[in-house]
Structures are given as C-alpha cells and as structure tokens.
Amino acid sequence: MAKELESVEYGLEKIFEGAQDFLPLLGTDYVEFYVGNAKQSAHYYKTAFGYQSYAYKGLETGSRDQVSYVLKQDKIKLVLTTPLNSQSPINDHIVKHGDGVKVIALWVDDAKKAYDETISRGAKSYMAPEVESDEYGEIVRAGIYTYGETVHMFVERKNYTGLFLPGFVEWKSDYNPESVGLKYIDHMVGNVGWGEMDTWVKWYEEVMGFVNFLSFDDKQIHTEYSALMSKVMSNGNGRIKFPINEPAEAAKKSQIEEYLDFYEGPGVQHLALATDDIVATVAQLKARGVEFLPPPPQSYYDMIPERLGSHMDIMKEDIAKLQELSILVDADEEGYLLQIFTKPVEDRPTLFYEIIQRMGAKGFGAGNFKALFESIEREQAKRGTL
Ligand code: FE2
C-alpha cells in the first residue's frame, strides 16, 4: 500500500501496452478557459478553490486584444482568458459556449514533432508550430483540434527558464488565499455527440497513440431515467487520461445531452483534481462556498463496509465524516478511491469539477455512477432539463 501511495504523483501512472508514444507526452501543461470576465473568474478560483496568483498578460504588458490570468495550485495551472474588444474571435467562442475550456495544453519535448506526427495521422491544425521568445529563452507551441472547438496545444519548454510563457509577467497580488490541497489533474472528461464516442476513441488511438483501457456501456451507466456511455483513453505512460462520454437513449434526458444543449456542442465536461486529503480539501472548499451535488441516501453509506470488503482494513477515513461531507467511495481489486462532484461552476449547466483521492484504486468510481447520476438528475429536474 505504501508503495502505491508514493507513486500517485500522476494518479494512474503506468505503462499501457498497445499505446504508441510517438509524441510522447510528459504531462498536462495548462488548461485555458475562455471566459466573459477573467478578472472576476480569477478571483473566484483563488477564493473558492485555493489557487495562487501566478502570471499575467494584458494591456499593462502590451497585450492589446486579450487578457490572461494564470493561476497555480501545486502542479495545476489554469489560464483564464478574456477578449478586450468585439473583433476578437475569442468572443465567438464565448457567445456560443459560454465560459468553458478552450485549450488542454500538453507538455512535450518536441512540439514540432508532436504536431507533425499528429497532422500526418489526420489531426486538424489549429496552430502551426510557433516559436515565442524573451530574455528567458524560447517556447515552441503548436495546436490541433480535438472534439468540438476544443484544442490540444503541444508546449515545448526545454529551452525556457521563464515563469510561464513569453509575454507573461509575474502576477503579484496582496490577496493570497491558502491552497485547499489540490495537487494535479487526474483526468479530464469530454462530452461528445450522439454516436460520436467511437469516432473520438479511434481518433485518440490513431492520431495521438492512446489506448482505450476502460469502457462502460449504457447498461452499466444508467438510472431509472437516463443513461450514458463512456470510454477512458490513456497515453502510453498513463499521465494523461481522457474519458469520453456520449449520451444514450433512455426514458428521460441524459446529463450529457443537457450539457450538449447548453454548451451547444461537444466540450470538456469535468476536470478531476487530485488531493491526498479529501476530507480536509472538501471541508475547505465547502467553507469557501463551492457547491457540491447533494449526498446519496443513508443506505449508500450503510453499504460502504460491504462494498469495500478487505479494503476497510486500510481505510483511514471515518464513514460518518465522509457522509457529513457527501464524499463518495468506490473500490477495485487494488484499493479504494474517494470522490465528490461540484455543481456546474457557471450559469449554463456545463463544466463542473471532481475532487478525487486515490488510495490504490485505478478506476473512475463506476460503483458510484448510479448514486451520482441520481443526484445529478435531481438537479436536472430543478432546472427543468431532465
Ligand atoms: Fe471523473
């Protein structure tokens, strides 16, 4: 067990056979959101989620058409970007989708090679390789489209010693709320349209060299009313995991369909952020106003000892405490995991967050799907979108 816990820096890190690491990906570099008001979003992420001010570009640094705030918490970097005039194409993204994830940036050793390899395998170009430099050296970036209008940007920073990217300055603030203990991005989930899941599974296999290492069909992921299908893609070293969801036919509207209606197309559904003390992290997040999905019924918590079996021996958390905070528990052969989901963090019911603590388990909480989706359905019913 101790050995498992030492190696959780990237969650599921392991070598996946069958993956072809022709890129290869070293990790997640940053996630960029296009938002209506980056200054206020940045304040929310600092106050509510415990991010620290890190870097900035805007009018004061010579950026005339857009402003970006970079926030950091341990290994996680978020970039919040807002256009400064009506001509910027960033507006079109915000008008159509509302606030949402535009770029999932991936850290590579050679951005041009990653671009050439993926383009030769059928990727659609977003940005041909560009070299940006300042007194700290140079960064090479290149981008390709994935599902919807979402982009994967390859970032090469081996010849750069600056803070973030050329054009950015250090963002110093007098307001520095403490971290809530979030460490790294465990996985990022995409919602795609009806019948498109396998297209994107194939795209990640062929274009990115990923493997599909877990699948859930609508018989496994359903409630009385709604259903979805999900396949989990991983790169070769296991550092990057992208589950892909599509809606499935059922009596009422799937949460994936609700997302697609309000995001007006495919996009990032949730970011799962890892902590090594979920009880402390969630208590902090709640105290700071982050809203989570309502808890499952009492019977869910009564069943935990039975569901965990022998893992109960290693479980340190108090079940009553987990229940008090509405934290969910799941187990597989290798251990258990603790997870909880926020409500959407913008007015459109689109992007939300998962907080996850892995105690050896390498799954995604399949044992919680039913309880989770019933909870989401109760929220959908309030919104009139079930
Ligand atoms: Fe997740």
Structure in words:
The protein has 386 residues and is of the alpha+beta class. The protein folds into two domains: 2-18 and 180-383, 2,3-Dihydroxybiphenyl 1,2-Dioxygenase, domain 1, CATH 3.10.180.10; 27-170, 2,3-Dihydroxybiphenyl 1,2-Dioxygenase, domain 1. The protein is 25% helix and 33% strand. It has eleven helices and 17 strands. It has helices spanning 2-6, 38-49, 90-97, 111-120, 197-206, 255-263, 278-287, 298-302, 304-308, 319-324, 369-383; strands at 25-34, 52-57, 66-73, 76-83, 100-108, 124-134, 137-145, 151-156, 169-170, 184-191, 211-216, 227-234, 241-248, 267-274, 328-332, 335-341, 352-359. The strands form two sheets. It has a nine-stranded mixed sheet with strand order 6-7-8-5-1-4-3-2-9. An eight-stranded mixed sheet has the order 11-12-13-10-14-17-16-15. A hairpin with a 6-residue loop joins strand 12 (227-234) and strand 13. The longest helix has 15 residues, at 369-383.
